[in-house]
Design a protein that fits this description.
single chain, 13 helices
């Protein structure tokens, strides 16, 4: 899946929370309908069966309640994507990454092989379809997420390259798969943020730590032998390696599809510490060595993350809606906020709040350029119908389809409609923070869990009201500018 991930350590965020966020983008030519659900432990399967790999996995008998964002159409699997469990541990899976021929020759993917002749069918490994459902309900910390997924990769393998984020109130861990069975994982520095387009991201990894205290690095137990045997050491140091060189890709297509996204995000958060533009630029949109993480110049807010994950290269010649470039530059690079986004999920774990209200999952559906972004307190079993009632039938009675329609209507006349989109997004953000303040205060006063359900419903009702109004405004502008418009005064 062509996605974009941003991770924010607790000392880099505006309020001391950890934040992990990802655009879940559908493959080219597709639009995957999504909905928000809470999975009750009683309804979590004890035997998981995947659609793509035809794999059956026995699951533990003690799952936690968790949120997720499954596909509305289950014919290709669950694809639960992202969520937070009852222990306030978050997971987003996955950022599809890249690899190279040397890795694939050493540890091929574990792909499903159908029956042929006298040979029985052979199940494939685990992948994006499965990961949240088989990991998130069973972990009690971000580190446990790395450990459980690492064990599953060793046992079952995977049929694709993926990057996965885990977070709790203290830590964020980022895991990247290597070939069919191997992985590395690194703890995100508390004072830093991470940028991940669809490319192998980690640019430094300490094998001494991974084979020792594992304070900030964890890997497959046999990674050293695997690298030595298959000539994957490409640097001068065999203890502190550059995984991007050893395991990643360096294709020309990366410079169109991947690296420009990292360039824009880091240019936004570090506009002065690094030269991004002009003949003296330290990094350009096509640089292969854009850092995996940086310390931002200011504390990062929810709105900052939403802005960069909605980016269409504003203020640059590469903006398809902008006036600075020409028809070549405007479509030179793949925007971050594309038309095919299914949803944006930001999992915020606020360590300064009681466990019951510490976890907030911010959600937005369809193209981020046009959608609203609303918080959902996850310590509940109730999901407002506006978020969870998405069907394959188009209806403005749910957030997904309303957001899809809003983007499709606004895009053809972007400059005319942008003021309505800006007002809409600002209104949703303003109300969201007002309601968070109110919900927090009321819960701290009463300790009544019903406050959470009521607050979530108030937020859903209000965002529906704002979305309906934005739809009406944009529909009017776009209708008035249809090509078959004509009035008697026109002749």
């Amino acid at each position: 899946m062509p996605c974009t991930t941003v991770l924010v350590g607790k000392k880099a965020s505006y309020d001391g929370s950890t934040m992990i966020a990802r655009n879940d983008d559908s493959p080219s030519g597709l639009f995957e309908e999504k909905k928000l659900v809470e999975v009750d432990p009683k309804k979590q399967p004890r035997k998981y069966k995947s659609k793509i790999a035809k794999l059956t996995i026995e699951l533990p008998d003690d799952p936690l309640r968790y949120t997720c964002m499954p596909n509305v159409d289950p014919s290709h699997g669950i694809w639960p994507a992202a969520g937070i469990n009852a222990e306030n541990v978050a997971m987003t899976a996955t950022e599809t990454i890249t690899t190279n021929a040397r890795v694939m020759g050493a540890d091929p993917y574990v792909e499903y092989r159908p029956a042929k002749g006298n040979k029985k069918a052979v199940a494939g490994g685990i992948g994006e379809e499965d990961l949240v459902a088989i990991v998130l309900p069973y972990i009690h910390s971000a580190r446990e997420g790395v450990e459980r997924l690492g064990a599953l990769l060793a046992e079952y393998g995977t049929y694709e390259p993926n990057g996965i984020a885990f977070s709790d109130k203290d830590e964020i861990w980022w895991l990247e798969t290597i070939g069919g069975h191997h992985f590395i994982a690194k703890r995100v520095p508390d004072d830093a943020y991470v940028t991940m387009p669809n490319q192998f991201g980690l640019d430094t990894f300490d094998l001494n730590d991974a084979y020792g205290a594992q304070k900030e690095n964890i890997c497959s137990p046999d990674l050293k032998d695997f690298m030595a045997k298959n000539h994957l050491y490409l640097g001068k140091d065999e203890e502190v390696i550059n995984p991007r060189l050893a395991f990643g890709s360096h294709d020309d297509s990366d410079h169109v599809y991947n690296t420009p996204r990292a360039w824009f995000i880091e240019r936004y958060f570090n506009p002065r510490t690094i030269v991004w533009d002009g003949p003296n630029a330290q990094y350009t949109p096509e640089s292969d060595d854009i850092p995996w993480h940086l310390v931002p110049e200011h504390k990062i807010t929810v709105e900052d993350v939403k802005y960069v994950l909605s980016s269409h290269f504003q203020g640059t010649p590469y903006d398809p809606y902008g006036k600075k470039g020409d028809e070549n530059t405007k479509h030179m690079y793949r925007p971050i906020g594309v038309n095919r986004t299914s949803f944006l999920g930001l999992m915020q774990i606020r360590g300064y709040r009681p466990k019951e209200i510490a976890a907030i999952e911010w959600i937005g559906f369809a193209s981020n350029v046009f959608n609203g972004f609303v918080p959902f307190y996850t310590n509940t079993i109730k999901v407002p119908a506006y978020y969870g009632n998405t069907t394959l039938r188009i209806s403005t009675d749910n957030f997904y389809w309303a957001s899809r329609l809003l983007g499709a209507l606004a895009d053809p006349h972007f400059n005319l409609n942008s003021i309505f989109i800006e007002r809409y997004q600002d209104s949703v953000a303003d109300f969201a923070h007002q309601e968070i303040t109110k919900i927090d205060a009321e819960y701290l006063k009463t300790k009544d869990l019903s406050v959470i359900d009521k607050g979530n419903q108030v937020l859903a009702d209000k965002v529906q009201e704002y979305t309906d109004k934005a739809l009406k405004d944009v529909l009017y502008v776009t209708s008035m500018n249809m090509k078959n418009a004509f009035a008697r005064s026109d002749n």
